[in-house]
Structures are given as structure tokens and as C-alpha cells.
Amino acid sequence: MTGMTIFSIVFLIFVAVTVANGVRIVPQGEEWIVQRLGKYHSTLLPGLRFIIPYIDIVSYKVTTKDIILDVQEQEVITRDNAVIVVNAIAFIKVTDPVKAVYGVQDYSEAIRNMIMTTLRSIVGEMELDQALSSRDTIKARLKAGVADEALDWGLTVKSVEIQDIKPSQSMQRASMGTLLYRRLSANLLTSLTMISAGSAQHFRSHPFLGDWVLARRIDVKIMSWSTCSPVNP
Fold it and tell me: Would you state the CATH architecture of domain 66-167?
């Protein structure tokens, strides 16, 4: 094998690699950002495209399909200091790939954090009952609140949905305790009323309830006697 043959083989390999680096096939649903010598140069649309090898570099591949962002669950404090748990889901679309890649470090994370912050602000202006019953209002205000910032990042917020909104576990436990206390208080009041009315027949048919209420009455009497001031002779 002569030197000319080796040179020809190397040259052909170089040409093949150069052509391969200069030809790009962009799939449907994507747009590619091309940088030339470190600076933005052009955007490649779907189809067969050509760039200058070794000078142009495909730096970013941006999807133009609808993106589903799951906004994780978070605790939010309402205006009346109640703690509720809320999470959401957003549907966004990249409409300007240049702004999306050069306007913010990570547009998905940026829009997710903005939704979380705006959601806390909206719910924080409401009382508990209003927040639990105003999904549509929260959704509309949330979309309007993030839409302008999203446009600066080359994004369009198509929809924001509230997946779940409910009292926190601590609030649920406190509510159950309050409900139990009210029921016990109501039962005790009913029992005392029946005693005052002289419904002895009812308590004879329910000896446990009668004994319990009688014991409570004795405790009350003892406490009242112990707190009475002694009578001066």
C-alpha cells in the first residue's frame, strides 16, 4: 500500500465525517438551537437541515410538544391560619425556543417554582372554607399570575389544574377532636336535662349511662362544696 493510497483513504474518511457532521435530520415536534463559535446563530426546524461542520454546533434540542408539569404537594397557610395541602398540574408549550434556552437556566423548573409561589400567595389571601370551595377561582388566578412571566421565557401556559386541595393531617386531627368534644358535650347536656326532668325510667333501662351521669353529678357537687367559703359562726 503506497503513501498515496493511505492519503486517499484518510481524505475520504475526513470527507465522510465532515458531511455527516454537516447534515442534521430534525424530528417532528422538536426545534434545535445552533451556535456558531459560541454565539446563537439559527434555529433548525423539523426536516433535513445543514450546518457548517466544526463551526456550527447544535447546543440545545427543544421540544415543541405540550409539556406536563407536576407541581408537587405543598402546605399553605390560609388567612385564618389554617394549614391546607394543595398540589397542581400545569400544561405548557414552548413557543419561542430561543427565549426558553437563553432566558432562564431551566424553564421547566422555573415555571414549576413560579406556580408554587403564586399558589401560596393566592391561597394565603383566602380563608379555609373559601379556599376549599374555590378551585375554579384559584385556577383562573393562578394561570393569569404566571402567564406574563412565562411569555418572557418563551412559554405559553395552556392550563393549570388543581389536583387536590384539603386540610393538612394536623388540621384533620384537630377537626376530629373538636367534633368529638362537641358530641360528648351535647350528649352530656342531654343526659343532665333528662335527669333534671326526672326521667328515671330511661336511666333504669340504661344503667351504665345512669351510673356514669350520677357519678359526674356527685363529682360536681363535691367540687362545689370544696370551693364554698366556710360560714362564720
Answer: 2-Layer Sandwich (3.30)
